[in-house]
Amino acid sequence: GDGVEVAALKKQAQAAIDAGELPRADELLATTETKQRTKLETLAAETAATIAKRGEVALAQLEYSEAASRFAEAAATLPPTEKHLADRLGYLDQQAAALHKQGEELGDNAALKSEIELLRHILTFRPRRAADAGTPVIIQA
Fold first, then answer.
1. What is the rounded CA–CA span in Å between residue 105 and residue 9?
2. Looking at the chain, which terminus has fewer C-beta neighbours within 10 angstroms, N or C?
């Protein structure tokens, strides 16, 4: 599954190993690893977006519990980096909104309790100054 560039880097690294040029081999392998990690991160973000889209479909079908599960899965699929924090919080916001609909429309108190717990968790990742500045803390779908 390696792309042309990664395959070439691996080949060069193996040639360096065979020639006893271990520092060069390590440098090439480090570059290879960086490219592979970038590819994995991109794939994880794309997968999370697909899972979230399935959550939107579940919402449209009034399957609130299923939607909440999908949004939670999308959030968990993203790499745990600052770069993806806004997307993760967005998916968690969507999960909270789905739980709210489950609780409000279907009388599911457990869903409402889960929503409250999730909202408290989300708030730990949002700086207070954003809330003070009028930035929406929770986005209802």
1. 56
2. N
103 vs 2 pLDDT, higher one:
103
- Which of these, 44, 56, 59, 36, lies nearest to 105 by C-alpha position? 59
Burial string for 47-73 (b: 16+ CB within 10 Å, else e) reads ebeebbebbeebbeeebbbbbbbbbbb
Q: What integer best gives the mean pLDDT of the chain?
A: 90
Structure tokens belonging to residue 71:
């949004």
- Express the helix, strand and coil content of the chain in percent, nearest 5 each: 80, 0, 20
Question: Are 74 and 91 within 8 A, CB to CB?
Answer: yes
Q: Could you give the CA distance from residue 124 to residue 39 in angstroms, rounded to a whole number? A: 30
Q: What is the mean pLDDT of residues 85-112?
A: 95
Task: Find where tokens 């009388």 sit.
Answer: 107
